[in-house]
């Protein structure tokens, strides 16, 4: 019987985390369960930074980026001493279930807690979309839309000058933001991790585009790509004499008001996670597959490998011809 749960956000924030927190708090209260918010992720868990939440604590946050519970990447939690303190805190606050919203590192923390008897549930909150067990992570759609807005502006100036524009997008080791934003913005070349990089092929595409009458060349590069933006710029200059400009979009992709898709999946995942706890399941990773809510064993979920995005990669290439 679940009487009291806690929620924390951890690792890099993502737009929609607040919508998930709101949904967790209001669903839990609806079912007569008390909720504590833990501040600054695992750092707050280790240090007892717990705060009781009510319906008003989550008012007016649905549309806000960032996380009202704040976040951190806690090194203390990784130590035996810190981890044991975290377990003690959960016990002394009489927490029956913990919901962790975050990326793969945060999920790993939830997995370790599960292995130590805590009823922990993970919700995927990261712009990177790098968790294979779920089709989408909270924040990814907003980050792609932010990238589309930025690339749209870059396209204007790039066309005006007839330049090559090289844009680096976030995603850690995952190329999804670059791939989706590349296709959505009509990028000419998309460079993602796991794909072979051929510098002569890039130069050929730049020249071919110019000869076809393209006013600009947009090259979208994922941060985990096998080549840097500077290397691409230098290669193009050496072999074609064409000037490039580099934009590293950076943390602007992490902020902003969540899109409708992120608000809705965050609200669904938050509510679903509470129901998973009520139904007595623990050590689960909540996700979305084919638009349906799912929960998988957190250990198995984290071991899953994402399939190569062959269809999308081909699509990007064909549409850039
Ligand atoms: O995981 C989200 C993310 O924004 C990645 O895309 C990026 O590599 C990383 O976090 C940046 O981390 P930090 O905010 O610590 O610089």
Overall pLDDT confidence = 97
How many strand segments? 11
Biggest sheet character: 7 strands, mixed
The span between the termini is: 59 Å
Give the strand order, joined by hyphens, for the main sheet: 3-2-1-4-5-10-11
Low-pLDDT ranges: none
Strand content: 15-25%
Give the radius of gyration.
Answer: 22 Å
Derived from helix and strand composition plus strand pairing, the structural class reads alpha/beta
Q: What is the multimeric organization of the chains shown?
A: single chain
Shape: elongated
Instruction: Tell me which ligands are bound.
Output: 6-O-phosphono-beta-D-fructofuranose
Instruction: Give the fraction of residues assigned to helices.
Output: 40-55%
Helix and strand pattern: EHEHEHEHEHEHEHEHEHEEHH
Count of alpha/pi helices: 11
In short, what is this structure?
With 321 residues, the protein is of the alpha/beta class. It is built from eleven helices and eleven strands.
Give the secondary structure arrangement, pairings included.
Elements: E1 4-9, H1 17-30, E2 34-38, H2 41-47, E3 50-53, H3 80-92, E4 97-102, H4 104-115, E5 120-124, H5 140-161, E6 164-169, H6 176-184, E7 189-191, H7 199-212, E8 217-222, H8 229-240, E9 244-248, H9 260-278, E10 284-289, E11 292-297, H10 298-303, H11 310-319
Parallel strand pairs: 1-2, 1-4, 4-5, 5-10, 6-8, 6-9, 7-8
Antiparallel strand pairs: 2-3, 10-11
Helix pairs in contact: 1-9, 2-3, 5-6, 6-11, 7-8
Bound molecules: 6-O-phosphono-beta-D-fructofuranose.
6-O-phosphono-beta-D-fructofuranose binds next to loops.
